[in-house]
TrEMBL record:
Pfam families: Erythro_esteras. This is Erythromycin esterase family protein. InterPro entries: Emycin_Estase, Hydrolase/PRTase-associated. Gene3D superfamilies: Biosynthetic Protein domain, EreA-like (biosynthetic domain), EreA-like, domain 2. Residues 321-338 have a biased composition (Basic and acidic residues).
Amino acid sequence: MEPGPHIGAAHEVIGLGEPAHGDTALADARLDLLTRLVDDGVRSIAFESDRVAGLAADDYVQGRTDSLDTALAEGLTHGFGAFDANRRLLAWMRAHNEDRAPRDRLSFHGIDGPFEFTAASPRPYLEHARDHLGADVDVAALTGDDERWSRMEAVLDPAASPGDGDEARRLRTIADDLLTALYAEAPRLVAATSRAAWDRARLHAETALGLLRYHRQAAQRLDESERWSRLSGVRDALMARNLLDVRAAEAGRGPTAVLAHNAHLRRHETRMEMAGMNLTWSGTGAIVAVLLGPKYAFIAGSLGPADRADLGGADAVLHAGEGEPRLEPAPEAEPRRD
């Protein structure tokens, strides 16, 4: 790959975008760039996949489990585990970590939730947090059958959504109470188990809250363009919050690289045509860029001229699919002052 603009230790979060998911010509170039960023100090990788599921991927990367197939199947959601590029990513991260001190090891984090065109039931996430606390709450009596939440109609059709009913509102109160109790009981819980177990319980409670927020938005009877714009906005807001939480945990070790679609990472408002609808919302990158300022860098991925609409606000563009991969300044990028 040809040399490009220096992006690395001066930034806390570096977004590595792609215009399409899968085993594209960009996948190898992005992994090559990622290795260079690790040489420059990156120590954590955040991925457009469910945060709780990502714990299984990190277990493999850290050597706590040994099955790559299981890590891909259970640790990556949204179908990402099926791509060879992601198999190579996890295998490379594990190999990198061998014989390295904890401060220099790579960690893997999901930053998404278990939702998009479908959304999971909050039941297992609430029950995990409840069980860690030892609380007596009958979550299943309120959620009912998981399928009423996870079927596609629950997101596609507001009339079929359970997200704004009495049970859903009670579940949101329970989720909030469980999260508060986890903090209130943290000294006892960490002493009885471990900080890692407490963190897992917290992530389960936060994921449940995120799911209930997403389901509530899915239940709103609005113009479909407006409803899907808001759903997209809720999803990216939760991704941004998760990413900032990852940064809080990783701040002392080095920058975080984020692997996601350009639409999530671009600094400008995201606009998308989908099923005859015109969607508009603030993506994860737009939110994080405002909150982190010059500490956020965005490298857009491009497979050709058709991807130009995805490059808004990029600091650089990683080109692949047209000759040798190359990293170049974005055409509209302004000179940086950091």
